[in-house]
Amino acid sequence: MRKCRLGSFAAIVAGFTVYFLLNEPGTANAMHIMEGFLPAGWALFWWLAFIPFFALGLVKLTRMTKENPELKLLLGLAGAFTFVLSALKLPSVTGSSSHPTGTGLGAVMLGPLSMSVLGSVVLLFQALLLAHGGLTTLGANAFSMAVAGPFAGYAAYKLVMKLTSRERVAVFTAAAMADLVTYVVTSVQLAIAFPAADGGVWTSFAKFGSIFAVTQIPLAISEGLLTVLLWNWLKSY
Amino acid sequence: MEQAADYMVFEQLGFTYPDTSAPALHCLSVTIPKGCRTAVIGHNGSGKSTLFLHALGILRPQSGRVSWKGKPLEYGKKELVSLRRNVGLVFQDPEQQLIMSTPLDDVSFGLRSLGLEQAVIQQRSQEALERLGLGGFGDKPIHQLSLGQKKRTALAGVMAMEPELILLDEPTAYLDPLSEALLLEGLEAIHGKGTTVVMATHDMDLAYRWADWLIVLSGGQCYASGTPEQVFSDPEVMQSIGLGLPILADLWHSLPQKAIAGMAAPRNVGEMKELLQQFVK
Amino acid sequence: MEQAADYMVFEQLGFTYPDTSAPALHCLSVTIPKGCRTAVIGHNGSGKSTLFLHALGILRPQSGRVSWKGKPLEYGKKELVSLRRNVGLVFQDPEQQLIMSTPLDDVSFGLRSLGLEQAVIQQRSQEALERLGLGGFGDKPIHQLSLGQKKRTALAGVMAMEPELILLDEPTAYLDPLSEALLLEGLEAIHGKGTTVVMATHDMDLAYRWADWLIVLSGGQCYASGTPEQVFSDPEVMQSIGLGLPILADLWHSLPQKAIAGMAAPRNVGEMKELLQQFVK
Amino acid sequence: MIRRIDAISYANGFRQLSPLWKSLFAAVMFILSYLLHPFLQLTICLWIAVWCLLYARIPVRAYVMLLGMALLFYVLSLPALLLEIGHPAAGQAWITFPLPLTSLTVYITAGGVLRGGLLLARLAACLSCLLFVIFTTPFTELLLVLRRLRVPQLVLELMLIMYRFLFLLSDSAHGMLLARRLRGGSRGFRATIREAGSMGGALLGQTMRRYRGLSQGLAARGFTGEIPLPPYSGGPVPLRYRVEGCSGIAVLLLAQLWMSW
Q1: What is the model's pTM?
Q2: What is the ipTM of this complex?
Q3: Which of A224, B30, B171, D162 is exposed most, by the fewest CB atoms within 10 A?
């Protein structure tokens, strides 16, 4: 039990690590929707969409920590770690905010529901300590990063394991998928809130999507690769 | 101490960290003499680490200037790279400095960035490890090493780059007597090859027996500098900034003036013992 | 030293950490005397911290046993909670035990779990902070404090629980002389109120001048224990385990036997000075 | 930057004010920022700047820097908001660029610019409210406010532990990046990935050691499963701020009524 816990903790941390270490200050671009950006209706909508997942995740984590109070310390430290790595890029000029999408690996180890709590707490920290993202847009950001990303990563992992049962490939896919899905969902959120006058939501999605694609797609690949490297490191530890 | 004025010189340095009220350095003027073992002593927060960060161009002075071999520091990318090949810094916390997973890999890290050949890298790294008594540990994962071994690995990594000047931030902090002795031995080997060694410390006994030259910092200013005998000649000066005296210097000064007139102050326990044997029959 | 056998006793303790080959403790038998200032000395890795973790029941002995006031330790949840109210541990790294964000909150953390009233908690926390010279820092975030202040905060947190026995792991490691003096002052105050204080350290000079009772660990075994005079009476014993002697004890033993026959060994610099003044005219 | 923001939040003119009152004020302002006319949104922006910079004495540099950094997201999204692709109806487009190899045109419309402008006004107001919270209220006190809002204990405990270790880990990480810079650092994608992998490993090792340390440390202090949070204690709010706050809100509402009439 203890070993497994340490392992999963390590994995969450590793997942978060990957992303930020590779991207030194200045390379990654903003993906958290900033404070006040979404119209009131949409901000509220994403809050409502996110809350059920948060509640379910909370129930699950509460049960887990009841059995094992030390898990709290573990999760807290993992969160701190994630936050630190995301903040490291701050001095950069190009990136206003960065995002830990290493959630894919965390989802594989802890289950996607737990990530909805941990991920959203990290997002709240980024909003409150760094003005990254925001309070009104927390629901939308949490939905894309702490719900959609982890679920996609988890599904990808399960699927690849079933098809090939090659763990490394599965880990790579999970990490990369979580990244990509987060990015796609964010673009969708922006597109439906700001449909193009000419071409509507689809055109708008193409526009927002292509702006962020420049950084997000290479990031997804390098995050996948690094996750595999760290996965190897973990196994030897 | 020859050429002192041409080596590393800090002039009228002033620096305040953002959002703090008190300056970390305040009109600090001091010179690091070439070829010496220099100890920079002072309390935590007296400006020792800030001074080192200035020596490497990591912080830029807000007023005053730093010069290296007679030329003021330049902060262009190229100039900094060349400065940092000549001046090495060993962090207080080896965890921050050790990046790769084994000592050998870590020591060769810096060499690789110099673009040397693999064979040369391998040989120089191995040599550096051996000189610090880590020959057999090259392939051991770093997280299995003791603190003393980690500190020596960090030192080996800096040493392998063969800088002229090595700065060490609190190298003996947390070390037990045995590890401390090993580290000091390693430093002695480096110093013997002509490298100038500077150590920040608040261990007065260590500074007293190790250093040829002392720089005393207090509140971001240079409070005194000179040979250990000079600096500790007036007990009250040191006590006034709360640093206290090394035990040996303290005992020496308590001896009656007329008995010790003309004698050199003992710098280590051995010398003190000899001295006492002359007096106590 | 009365009641020693009934206070905290370790008998034939054996413990090996998982994934290591050498045992951390090996047939260690030692007793902590009540009411004393005890120093546990030894190298890093000699078993000091492991011993302390056993005293609080955080680690369970793999062989042998620990007893507290004549009764063997029990490891049920309730028994451990009550043990840890009576025995406090201050870790070497204060970050390990500070959990809240400000000193005042942190010191009250332990008290709150005792179920005391808010007013009592507030008062006792404030008192503990003041006794350690941290009165004005209660509301400052812990991450802005210096290492010395953090160490004192950790001590205050343990002190506020008013345990009978306080264990400190390397309390002065890496502190500058001023912070060290403040911490020792705080310890003196606690000891003066009747608390038994045990400190693990590898600073021989400190152990020599501070402790009433010494326990020497080496390789997980108790190498010697006794009063400082007893333990350091034979210089070669200590040197054989690489610990060296405190400067004062070293000097004392170097004096000719006939000159010092019948005198008490000086335990601090002041006493040594007086002694020398008798000899050196 | 985190350290700077954090340090300011502990040492500013509003530090002693009740955190609950400050949060409530910010919440009302958030709502107003969404409801009011763009002109009034800009007024909110200025009013809060006065509170932060003049009353709470937040360093101007830090305030402007954080504002600017947050606005980068807006700047980045601007092309997507302004540029339309397709076939502009006659007289609709302000500026047009024909897209080579296609029959499409990239153009900017007056409506698009207006939308971008309105968005900026709302952003500026909301962002000011956020900055007000960030700069004037230390995280520790926000935690107590969240507790009053009945955020579950588990979430609060996680946040507490995160906050406590944030600065330690951040110092470590910064140290490692600095050390890497001092020692040259490698070139090329493969080497970079390898290096990043080991740095990640090293940091991970440290984090795990901290976890083990903390679990021992807390066990020694009698941790039995729950971290009891300190009770909420708020300082008084000077009459002057209460009056200015309430009357400001009233004026804003009246202005809105008058404008929509």
Answers
A1: 0.88
A2: 0.87
A3: B30
